[in-house]
DNA sequence: CTTCTAAATCAGAATCTTTCTGATTTTATT
DNA sequence: AATAAAATCAGAAAGATTCTGATTTAGAAG
């Protein structure tokens, strides 16, 4: 369902439904946590052993522009990617030891307090919020 | 004053007050916006033309561990650094076109709303919050 | 002031992520 | 089945950051 909707959205924008693109989407849909480009590439290699790494990056950029994918940065020196499902706006709780992530539904922009401190002449487009620390397993 | 306090703090931790380290601190104190490692290096070269880039990174890591410096990521593919002055906790407003930044004094963790949504068994150590968009000059 | 040692620096290579280039292949339409 | 635009592949390139091994230096001790 999600998968078909996204394919539909891609088609309507004249994007070709290549095998690699389909596989990337399936991987993102299956993923339980945000994945690094490298992790996505490794999984795709199993099905398409001759794949170019570039294909992963090109498609992730495309999907990000189409707002189908979110690019996240958790101070790990590389980005991670997750599906951007409407009606599921969230932020992340990130464990600094194991790298585990959990969704945080509360959003700083929802209360008006913060938005009120932004100058009126600044046009907000996006925002990021992450909480770092140690999960139950990793804290001492 | 700020400068002397930091030198004092470094000394007390048995860190040597090398010329390069002093210069780096002066640059950060003078800076009006967070600087990329490359920008810091370029400024240091004027005074120490034989400097190694590595020295910049090594010292920034050290200062970050000592909580004298904040490392920021504004989705530009590289980090930026700023002094971490106590009593000046803030986040950033970042212009996606010109790269300009402004301080945002409101903090998502101040209201209890968000903290309440974090599981009790997660030990929070740090957090990040950035608002992206277009500044007065850059919006159409 | 001189000696000494750990810490810091330099120079350059290495690593890693991400982007680019040019040739080839594929999707989807005609 | 032919076609053109889009996408892919393979490998190089760019850029940030980290590492290595030899050399230098800050600060302490004599």
Reading side by side through the largest sheet of chain A, how are the strands ordered?
1-3-2
Shape of chain A, please?
A: globular
Q: How many strands in all of chain A? A: 6
Which CATH class of the largest domain in chain A is shown? Mainly Alpha
Terminal CA distance of chain A: 42 Å
Oligomeric state of shown chains: homodimer
Rg over CA atoms of chain A:
17 Å
Write the layout of secondary structure elements.
The structure is a homodimer of 140-residue chains.
Chain A: H1 2-12, H2 19-30, E1 35-36, H3 37-47, H4 53-65, E2 69-73, E3 79-83, E4 91-95, E5 101-104, H5 112-117, E6 123-134
Helix pairs in contact in A: 1-2, 2-3, 3-4
The structure holds a DNA duplex (30 and 30 nucleotides).
Describe this structure in words.
The structure is a homodimer. Chain A is built from five helices and six strands. Chain A has helices spanning about 1-10, 20-30, 35-45, 55-65, 110-115; strands spanning about 35, 70-75, 80-85, 90-95, 100-105, 125-135. In chain A, the strands form two sheets. A three-stranded antiparallel β-sheet of chain A has the order 1-3-2. Chain A is globular, with a radius of gyration of 17 Å. The interface of A and B includes residues 134 and 139 of A. β6 (about 125-135) of chain A pairs antiparallel with β6 (about 125-135) of chain B.
Would you kindly provide a brief summary of this structure?
Chain A is of the alpha+beta class and 140 residues long. Chain A is 38% helix and 24% strand.
């Amino acid at each position: 369902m999600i998968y078909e909707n996204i394919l539909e959205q891609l088609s309507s924008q004249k994007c070709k439904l290549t095998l690699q693109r389909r596989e990337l989407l399936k991987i993102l849909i299956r993923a339980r946590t945000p994945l690094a480009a490298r992790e996505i590439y490794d999984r795709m290699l199993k099905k398409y052993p001759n794949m170019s790494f570039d294909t992963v990056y090109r498609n992730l950029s495309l999907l990000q522009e189409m707002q189908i994918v979110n690019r996240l940065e958790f101070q790990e020196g590389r980005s991670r990617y997750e599906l951007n499902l409407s009606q599921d706006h969230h932020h992340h709780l990130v464990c600094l030891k194991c790298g585990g992530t959990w969704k945080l539904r509360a959003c700083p922009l929802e209360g008006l307090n913060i938005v009120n401190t932004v100058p009126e002449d600044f046009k907000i487009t996006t925002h990021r919020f992450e909480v770092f620390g140690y999960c139950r397993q990793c804290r001492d």
